[in-house]
Amino acid sequence: MSVELGAPFVLVTGGKGGVGKTTVAANLGVDLAREGRRVLLVDLDLGLANLDLTLGLRPAHRVEDALAGDVPLEECVITGPGGVHLLPAASGSEELSSLGSERRSRLIELLRGLAPRYDVVVGDSAAGVGADVLAFAALADRVVLVTTPDLAALTDAYGLIKALDQHGVRHGIDIPTPEVLVNHASGVEEGRAVARKLRSICERFLARSPRQAGWLPRSASVERSQSEGAPFVLRTRRALENVCMAQISGRLHGLAGVSGTPVTAGKNF
Ligand SMILES: Nc1ncnc2c1ncn2[C@@H]1O[C@H](COP(=O)(O)OP(=O)(O)OP(=O)(O)O)[C@@H](O)[C@H]1O
Ligand SMILES: [Mg+2]
């Protein structure tokens, strides 16, 4: 349970752009929601947000409207596939691409008013080691770090784990060691091998031992699901990517227990 948010909080992040963070966050959120959990997906890739498109939604209001004081935050929440709730953000906003500590605190304060109504909050973060990513990770109960087997992605994944480690030391906070999700893997073996490689580097240089959150195959169906705005977890359950996703979300069941009060989304759905 994130003390600052008042609900269990999972941040999906990754060092490199385009590794599948949004795909994972969206399908994880929908998978947990369709099992009966009350899930709030929050687009924390502020400035280049696209969770709404990934879920096939067209929100009337976005988080920046609430930050500007134009609408209450709950008015920005929209119901999506599987019953997941989404708090969308804007795309193409330079102003929001880096919040700065004042606006970040305001956003966290607003989220604190909303989060306790949910069993779990899942955040989709921007790539990189920017101040916003580090600050959101510092609030998280679990950090899921998405990488691909690609050397550049792995190097950036290590860079992010290192930056989180240093951020924690600098601010005297205990940031959870990220769990590694290997996307675009050719199979379970490659998933394990990539996670093992990253773990051994982290153990050697950071004295941290990141566990594996799971893996996802490279698949045309996963790619299509994003462009069509239809989460793949709502398709055939037997498809490999669905089995993989079920394993990934299964690891979060303990965190996202069912409790709390009923939730109503904003009017714009
Ligand atoms: N397992 C997969 N198989 C095939 N295509 C995939 C897979 N995972 C993601 N993709 C595709 O890769 C592209 C990037 O995915 P996504 O937007 O989820 O990445 P991201 O890490 O959120 O990117 P950004 O850093 O820009 O936010 C999308 O076109 C998506 O459909
Ligand atoms: Mg993304």
Q: Provide the spatial order of strands within the biggest beta sheet.
A: 3-4-2-5-1-6-7-8
Total discrete domains: 1
Helicity level? 40-55%
CATH topology: Rossmann fold
Molecular shape: globular
CATH class: Alpha Beta
Major sheet size, sense and barrel closure: 8 strands, mixed
Rg for CA atoms: 17 Å
Q: Structural class of the secondary structure composition? A: alpha/beta
Count of helical segments? 10
What is the arithmetic mean of pLDDT? Answer: 91
| Gap between N and C termini | 29 Å
In percent terms, what proportion of residues is strand?
15-25%
The H-level CATH homologous superfamily, spelled out, is: P-loop containing nucleotide triphosphate hydrolases
**Bound small molecules, which ones?**
adenosine-5'-triphosphate, magnesium ion
Please tally the β strands and state the result.
Answer: 8
